[in-house]
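_Per-residue structure_
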Amino acid sequence: MKIKKKLKIFLNSLFYFSYIDRNIINLIIPLINISNKRVKDKLNDIIIDISNFDITFSLNIFSKDEILFLLENCILICSFDGLTSNELLEINKVFRKYDISEDEITNLCLVINQELNIVDVQSRISLLINFVNGYIFYIQNGYTPYEAYVSMRLLFYITNTRFNNIVALINSYISNKYFFENEIHSEFFGILSKDKIKKISEELYINGYYLLGYINENEIEKIKKILLSSSFKYRNNNDVIKDIETNDYINQEIIKKILFDDVLIAISQNYIGSIPVLEGPISWITYYKNGIPFSDAAQLFHCDMDRLRQLKLFIMITDVDSESGPHVFVKNSHKKLPFSLLRDGRYSDQEVYSQYNKNDIIEFCLKKGAVLLEDTRGLHKGMEIKNKSKNRIIFQICYSMNLFGQNYDKFNLKIENCILKYKESCKSFRFFS
């Protein structure tokens, strides 16, 4: 294969999607022959930062010398913010060994863009403008235009989560936050310190999920009884999932205690970076259906992109084992997605399992009462029920940065003192007294 064709593949993997195979990384780092330690560290940081994807073909088509060649020339279009002019000169000494110009690399990038039909700069700018205009409209009217919602979803995949993270970071600096004492009390989870809340958020950021603990059996039975006495409808006219009507149970005392639990609000605020907006609760029952996964029942892998940033809480109302449809989450997938999965939609098991280590695909077989927190921007699904005699009941709350994104109907919430304390979190509800 000609070096330019290899270079095109390398540039595509490295700069349009910010990934490179870890095995190549292990070869590249020892080959960076630069004496200045700070420069070398800077280069290593750039390489390590883009090393979260496995492009196995890259290792097969490049020789060791070609890898060095590609690295030394491709880095020309990297950012070197923070390096001094002398340090940049030292880097350029390495580049001079090979006869390839910056213009040539730029032209190759354009060829890649045309051949692979990658979203061009102008299209990205248009998406960004749609998003900004829609976001301003949302702030003024409390409603998201559809074009802005679609733009948000596309920008998520084009930038591989970075866009959402940047917006959330900016929002965290300009938003109000609730004040919490050093010890935060919960009727369900005991007393947690601020340090513990911070550690939970850190684990959520690292892994994408956190098993918070268990609600006692008596309380779970109360919740189960309330849910089963509520009205319901089958989702999307199928008989796999029965959605329970939220307005029938949202004003029950125990439901409100969970919704406005101090520990849950504190964790979600710490993780999201701003006052969390409560959405839900929603609950559903999943039934057996030939042991085959249904897309409409969220039984194929997907990423939740209804909001810019969110944290979901799942409470197991029934015991969940391998036959009763355990929840599945791909560890670390909330940070970056493999190149082959950078598209909006559902993914087959084969697509996901081929890209991740088996140990990183977590099946949550949990006893009733288990409380799971999860950043559902990461890959997840509910497995299909495999035993006719079993079903699964889930209770879910979503904590969001705000309501920009998908527009949903509001639930009816009766005003009480416990709610007024967190009224800023109640933008998704209609109040009545």
